[in-house]
């Protein structure tokens, strides 16, 4: 299985950070490519994108100020297969990426991703009081995995805070 490329550039509005690529993403070379993953529907329902993008269009998010990366590059069937040392290395690499590219907001797609990144356990949804990298905002949203039991409208409501937050900081 192959890692998939980051879609990242300087001064993004939001950098979305997932756990790691799925097997399907590895095979296709695109983020959130598993048909059961609701990421693309959530972005549209939350008002972040003007239409529902397809996974094959993931790179087009850069054109509207959004980027994609993962805390761990190695594809797996599920996040439970990720080793602790992979998270430690991934956290350091992610801090470097955020420091280098300086996105306004880093949106962690799942509390577990942010727990691994921050070392914190009790995490509310939305904007975090303190960010790991200065001059950026850490934002925690539910995972878009089809395994998450929250309704898509509930998840989209949390993601819909991102455009409001962007407007407040600009």
UniProtKB/TrEMBL annotation:
<dbReference type="GO" id="GO:0004844">
    <property type="term" value="F:uracil DNA N-glycosylase activity"/>
</dbReference>
<dbReference type="InterPro" id="IPR015637">
    <property type="entry name" value="MUG/TDG"/>
</dbReference>
<dbReference type="GO" id="GO:0008263">
    <property type="term" value="F:pyrimidine-specific mismatch base pair DNA N-glycosylase activity"/>
</dbReference>
<dbReference type="InterPro" id="IPR036895">
    <property type="entry name" value="Uracil-DNA_glycosylase-like_sf"/>
</dbReference>
<keyword id="KW-0378">Hydrolase</keyword>
<feature type="domain" description="Uracil-DNA glycosylase-like">
    <location>
        <begin position="5"/>
        <end position="151"/>
    </location>
</feature>
<dbReference type="Pfam" id="PF03167">
    <property type="entry name" value="UDG"/>
</dbReference>
<keyword id="KW-0234">DNA repair</keyword>
<keyword id="KW-0227">DNA damage</keyword>
<dbReference type="GO" id="GO:0006285">
    <property type="term" value="P:base-excision repair, AP site formation"/>
</dbReference>
<dbReference type="InterPro" id="IPR005122">
    <property type="entry name" value="Uracil-DNA_glycosylase-like"/>
</dbReference>
<keyword id="KW-0326">Glycosidase</keyword>
<protein>
    <submittedName>
        <fullName>G/U mismatch-specific DNA glycosylase</fullName>
        <ecNumber>3.2.2.28</ecNumber>
    </submittedName>
</protein>
